[in-house]
From TrEMBL:
Superkingdom, taxonomy of origin: Bacteria
InterPro entries reported in the protein's UniProt record: AsnASE_II, Asp/glu_Ase-like_sf, Asparaginase/glutaminase-like, Asparaginase/glutaminase_AS1, Asparaginase/glutaminase_AS2, Asparaginase_C, L-asparaginase_C, L-asparaginase_N
GO biological process, alphabetically ordered: asparagine metabolic process
Keyword Hydrolase part of the UniProt annotation: yes
Pfam families reported for this sequence: Asparaginase, Asparaginase_C
GO MF entry, a single one: asparaginase activity
Keyword Hydrolase part of the UniProt annotation: yes
Coiled coil ranges: none
Entry-linked CDD domains: L-asparaginase_II (cd08964)
SMART domains documented for this protein: Asparaginase
Protein name as it appears in the record: L-asparagine amidohydrolase
Length: 349
């Protein structure tokens, strides 16, 4: 009896030690398809943001074996509804948990529509080198072969992997790891939608087995020029998409509504239609920062190509897509309105 009791106590002690040694990962839920549900396994229609963080966690019990999991509901919306208020709330909470030492890593469940923008925003404003992992799903929780549970399992494994430290924010989807600056959604429905067109993925995660092959080198997190503690609001920056037989109406509307910056998503190497070019120039003359970008989807928008950027006072986006360029310009405008300083920010972040 005594021996049996001692054995039970010993096992309980080992279990307690093992539990104590596990890393702590906070899962911050914002909604999206991963938290969505539909009427049936073969019904493509569904509603985003109907499943709570507790149910997301309970659907993947395996993550409790590798980490102490804590969940918080930041929002519960489709990511097409993502807004500045949720961004600021989310970034502040991520920063607080990591800087105060309450979490060893963060996993954020998020809709795929704007995941790349949220990831890049966090990448620029959170001041910690601890892992921050964005994850979502292309098939809702009621769907046949729902991809959310395995994506979440993989995301937690990435968050506890020591090699994830210092990588900045990453996106984990479909067994791949992508850097926040580089990743974009490329397909409306495919589970392999997330790609990094200019650089490729930085790693893989296969049933929890994490491998890295590359490091992001642009400024992020600890080395970024931005700090969420100093950001209370974000200025208005609009994206204007170019096309044949274009007109300046949307540029003029943006200027009329006091946009502080405009991202011109031009044709080819960022080339706007002539009337749009002139309207953008009018904006520059009135203190609006104009960044030339491209609608193409990959490649660098080069300075002084067909457009004389020096003459018009434009800056270019490097190889950021328009939605990422908008995020960076909003943050840059919280620090300065100096065009040359903002151009340097685009060269380094």
């Amino acid at each position: 009896m005594k021996f049996g009791l001692k054995k039970v106590v010993f096992v309980m002690l080992l279990s307690a030690i093992a539990s104590f040694a596990k890393p702590t990962v906070y899962i911050l839920a914002t909604g999206g398809t991963i938290a969505g549900s539909g009427s049936g396994a073969l019904d493509s229609s569904y509603t985003s943001g109907t499943v709570t963080v507790d149910k997301l966690i309970s659907a993947v019990p395996e993550i409790n074996k590798i980490a102490t999991i804590k969940g918080e509901q930041i929002s519960n919306i489709g990511s097409q509804e993502m807004n500045n208020e949720v961004w600021l709330k989310l970034a502040s909470r991520v920063n607080e948990l990591l800087v105060n030492g309450n979490a060893d890593g963060i996993v954020i469940t998020h809709g795929t529509d704007t995941m790349e923008e949220t990831a890049y925003f966090l990448n620029l404003v959170v001041k910690s080198d601890k892992p921050i992992v964005m994850v979502g799903a292309m098939r809702n929780s009621s769907s046949l072969s729902a991809d959310g549970p395995l994506n979440l399992f993989n995301a937690v494994n990435v968050a506890i992997d020591k090699n994830s430290i210092g990588k900045g924010v990453v996106v984990v989807m479909n067994d791949e790891i992508h850097a926040a600056r580089e990743v974009t959604k490329t397909n409306t429905t495919s589970v392999s939608t997330f790609k990094s067109p200019n650089s490729g993925k930085i790693g893989t995660v296969f049933y929890g087995k994490v491998k890295y092959y590359m490091n992001p080198i642009r400024k992020h997190t600890l080395n970024s020029d931005f700090d969420i503690a100093n950001i209370k609001e974000l200025p208005r920056v609009d994206i204007i998409y170019s096309h044949t037989n274009d007109n300046a109406d949307f540029v003029n509307t943006a200027l009329k509504n006091n946009a502080k910056g405009i991202i011109s998503s031009g044709m080819g190497n960022g080339n706007p239609y002539p009337s749009v070019l002139n309207a953008l120039f009018d904006g520059v003359k009135n203190g609006v920062i104009v960044v030339r970008d491209s609608r193409v989807g990959s490649g660098e928008t080069t300075l002084n190509g067909e457009v004389d950027d020096d003459k018009y006072g434009f800056i270019t986006s490097d190889n950021l897509n328009a939605q990422k360029a908008r995020v960076l310009l909003m943050l840059a405008l919280t620090k300065t309105n100096d065009k040359d300083k903002i151009a340097k920010i685009f060269e380094t972040h």
